[in-house]
Write a structure and sequence with these properties.
Length: 181
């Protein structure tokens, strides 16, 4: 497990995420491992996905990344091999699956799940209104368009109704310009 400086590859590469003690905690694949780590960090900040990896990233911050194998022709086999070898060594991996595109969810099941989710949201007028409000506010937050007074109201909503708005509890204030006050 060396430390190559180039984390990009024409083919897939297998990377490892390591904790502060140097223990391997996650094995993944990517063509651009550094970009994939940025994706992981962005996804874990959204508080949408509750997985062992994202919970760990939220708690410990940016991990050390090392390239385990570059230019994998058969990346599925390579990822499975690295995960099984790490587990055999007793590493406490955060990987849910055994690697190689697992768990696979067929397109028809994803479509059925999406339709059921949409029906649950759009079938109830109150749920639809909440969903639309959260979507609009999230877009405003991403674009930096939500003023501090609104952010304070969002944090209050998170305090009063954490089951609906809990992800807003830690929204930071932004620097307001003089003309916005």
């Amino acid at each position: 497990m060396g430390r190559p400086t180039d984390f990009t590859s024409e083919l897939a590469c297998i990377y490892g995420l390591f904790d502060s003690t140097g223990a391997l905690r996650y094995v993944g694949k990517a063509r651009d491992a550094k970009a994939r780590l940025k994706d992981h960090m962005r996804e874990c900040r959204g508080h949408r996905r509750r997985t062992p990896l994202y919970d760990w990233l939220r708690k410990h911050g940016v991990p050390e990344m090392r390239l385990l194998e570059a230019d994998c022709v058969d990346w599925r086999e390579a990822e499975r091999r690295h995960i099984s070898e790490a587990r055999a060594r007793g590493e406490r991996l955060l990987n849910i699956a055994d690697g190689g595109d697992q768990p696979h969810c067929p397109a028809e099941i994803r479509a059925r799940n999406g339709a059921a989710n949409a029906a649950a949201i759009h079938g109830d007028p109150l749920k639809k209104r909440i969903w639309n409000a959260k979507r609009a506010l999230a877009q405003g937050l991403r674009q930096g368009m939500v003023m501090n007074s609104t952010r304070a109201k969002m944090r209050e909503a998170a305090h009063r109704l954490p089951h609906l708005f809990g992800e807003w509890a830690t929204i930071p204030d932004r620097e307001e310009r003089a003309y916005e006050r």
